[in-house]
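re: that chain from earlier
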Amino acid sequence: MPKILSNDDAYDIQFSAARPSGDWRVDHEVLLEVERLLGLTHHIRIWRVGGSHTYGAYRYKDQQHWITIQTHLDTEEANKTFWHELVHAQQKERQLSDPSVMTFRQQRKIYRYEDRPYEHEANRVSEAYSDKLKVIVDA
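^ sequence. v structure.
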């Protein structure tokens, strides 16, 4: 079972420069359920930050999923965005287990952002599940 680290947690020592104060939080019990649903096995780091032009971001570093969500989002948008980024984590684990799967970098070279199959999948799953399983909830 992956360990979930977020800047809501007292044991997490990495914070953004100015610790954000969003009106939402991560429901860790629901997130564990979602991890099982998506088959995620690597650690997840969650960051709430402000001041970006995107709603969320995903990257894989040091064998961990790093997910960033903007604090200015309302709870519903933050949850939908978080689901979208979690699907990117699932896609990365798929790539790691099957070298024949197209990577994010390969898709960036071939497709515009809005045409990338990974983005379409992330949007579909986010739309299908974000109303059913609320990972991001009101603080």
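The chain has one domain: 4-132.
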